[in-house]
Please model this.
Amino acid sequence: MISPKTQYRVVSGLLGGALVTSALAFAAPVATAAPAAAPGAKVVVLNDPSFVDTIALADVPTNEGHEAANMIVGLRADGHTVTELTTSTPAAITAALKGKDTLVVPELERDAWAQNIGSASRSAVKSFVRNGGTIVVASDYEDTLNTLFGYKIETTGDDGWTKRAPAGSPFRGGPASLPDNNGSNSAVISTLPAGAVVEYADSDNDNAGVFTKREGKGLVVSLGWDWYWAAPAQADGQDGGWRSILDTSVRTGIKPAVAPSNVFKLPKPAAHSRAAAVKLKLDLPGAGKIKVGPSKKGTLKTVTKKVGASGNTSVWVKPSGSTIKKLKKKLKASGKSAVATKLRVKATYTPTGGKPRTVTRVYVFKLQR
Model:
């Protein structure tokens, strides 16, 4: 199936060689630099030739008309890890999306995808998104989002878009405008689902080149361009800011790193020494550093230890010289076999890659003859 927006490519192909050269020789929007280096997203790209236009990746530099392959090459060039989805059975989709951040559905130039993969496969995609994944759909004239999520979006042509991303949007720092590259369309804003956020709109604010929509814990991103003749897949390909938009889109699926636990408690003493020291056996969440010392300055000695992956370590907490001196004086005056004092111990545990946490507890320190 050939979309209305690309029919002129076919017409151009039927013309004489000179006219074909003229049609394809228009100046591509200026290419932008690769996005700043940062950990990339784990991306799955639909690359099933039954649905998308693709080609061997080695041939992409000299073959501009294969949008799925163009997107794969571009995403990898920008530091993302790309898995190609070449079949759309429920098992294949579930396996491919496991542990991934984002699913990219390129232009469906060969056939509609969501309508033809069956309800179980559609459910696998929806589950991925609603449980925190991102789906990015390029040039969605085949009603992928309408079919998956029950939207009723209508598409139309346009001639470029200006940034409308609100505060807090991941696209807030994107290019000021986006061109209508060869192979672009818009979503009619009045037909967008409730809660959709228009990130880029035309001058009349009635059509969106980029919009987003929350679905459960995940995100839907719709992009108006189809990635025909696209930088960096082709050195002279189109861009105009769309490269950075795709980079931002797939990064929205990256889950924030889970901070390592720093929760612990100070135990009862495991042992006492004759010299008034207290042994603590600590069960910490994992590798890191533990610092144990006085809550009141000068009463105890401070000790710092590295903690291994098991989190298990022991620390002897010892009174300071001045505290021992006071206890000895008290012991001598009392005539008893032992004397004691209560001191508050402060322990700070910092897990590797995490934030410190401080806990205090009062212990009895006994000095014996």
